[in-house]
Amino acid sequence: MSERAYCMLAPNPGPMTLEGTNTWVLLEPGSTEAVVVDPGPLDLEHLERVLRYVEDRGARVALTLLTHHHADHAEAAEHFAAQTAAPVRAVGTGHDDLGDGETVRVGGLEVTVVSTPGHTGDSISFLLPAESALLTGDTVLGRGTTVVAWPDGELGAYLDSLGRIERLAASGQAARILPGHGPLVPEAAATVRYYLEHRAQRLDEVRAAVAAGATEPRQVVERVYTDVPREVWPAAELSVRAQLDYLRYRSAEPGRNVKK
Q1: Cα 9–chain centre separation
Q2: What is the DSSP string of 114-151?
Q3: What average pLDDT does the segment 41-65 reach?
Q4: Residue 164: how many CB atoms within 10 A of its CB?
Q5: pTM recorded for the entire structure
Q6: Which of 6, 65, 117, 219 has the most other CB atoms within 10 Å of its CB?
Q7: Which residues partner with 176 through β-bridges?
Q8: Beta strands 22-26; 5-9: pairing state
Q9: Contacts of 32 (CB under 8 A, 6+ apart)
Q10: What is the pLDDT of residues 54-65, one digit of tens each?
Q11: Nearest to 36, CA basis, from 70, 71, 83, 96
Q12: Exposure of 30 by Cβ count < 10 A (0-12 exposed, 13-18 middle, 19+ buried)?
């Protein structure tokens, strides 16, 4: 994908994972130490491919980073750590928590942690300053939009995270997005604007569905998500629950965006 970032597609395609999970190998040119972001599901053949790619470049895996805890991104982390003898860093219980704004340095490579909760409570992104690129996990995808995985995920936090990415894109720090699923996003700013517009439209549609008599999340899904395949309706229902929570909170606390 770039001089420092290579994408290896895990063999787990599906309605929620698109072509599969993107495992990212980050390696500074000439370095012998690589960073792997999201080793993916526990698929031994996939992990061997990742290791072989690193070794073929005369390097070793020195660190594994996780964008969030979902199994399609993180299930293999423990096994991969045993294979590589490299630490795993992420946000959450049992991990050496990564702090917002922290710069991780490995073999001359610099990666900056950007807190982007919302899809899940522990979602983070990784800024690759030398490439003006942001690895977003599931916060922004290469195609389509993502789910706010209620109850762990929260729409107010997600909207704030999109706003943060929008500012990084506007400044040129994150001109491109390297997503957790789907193809590279060459125009980060336009994609994030679309995400924000899409969320605003969905909120309007959910309000209208409730006003028209929908009382349960499934009923809202049936009215609002007619444009998506039924096989992803369970995920859509999670987003609807997150939207209903957000609307209830905004109604109770005008002017505030994030639930405390």
Answers
A1: 15
A2: EE--SSSTT-EEEEEGGGTEEEEETSS-SSS-----TT
A3: 98
A4: 18
A5: 0.92
A6: 65
A7: 133
A8: antiparallel
A9: 58, 59, 60, 107
A10: 999 999 999 999
A11: 83
A12: exposed
Q: Which class for 113: exposed (0-12), middle (13-18), buried (19 or more C-beta within 10 A)?
A: buried
In this prediction, residue 126 carries a pLDDT of 98
| Structure tokens that stand for 132 in this block | 């003006």
Q: How far is CA 189 from the centre of its chain?
A: 16
- Strand, coil or helix: 90: coil
Length of the chain: 260
How far apart are alpha carbons 199 and 91 in whole angstroms?
26
Residue of higher predicted confidence among 186 and 249: 186
Nearest Cα to 4, choosing from 79, 57, 42, 81?
57
In the block, tokens 């789910």 appear at: 147
